Amino acid sequence: MISDPLNAYQTGQPLLNTAGGEKHYLQPRSISGAVNGHSINSVIEALRTPTIGQQILNKLKQVIIPPRFY
Fold this sequence. Notes:
By secondary structure, the chain is mostly helical. The protein has helices spanning 5-12, 31-36, 40-48, 52-64.
């Protein structure tokens, strides 16, 4: 989570190891998500609720890309 204090500390310290690899940052969707940080409820909420930018992209894809019929 972007609001996680450990994440902010690790990225700010050059001598402190991080997990490495590909990172996916989640933005908290509510006040409790920002406060609770790494709780599983905050992660589920961040993955379930699309951001405003993602909602706009989803709508554009629906308009631009024709539906497929299988």
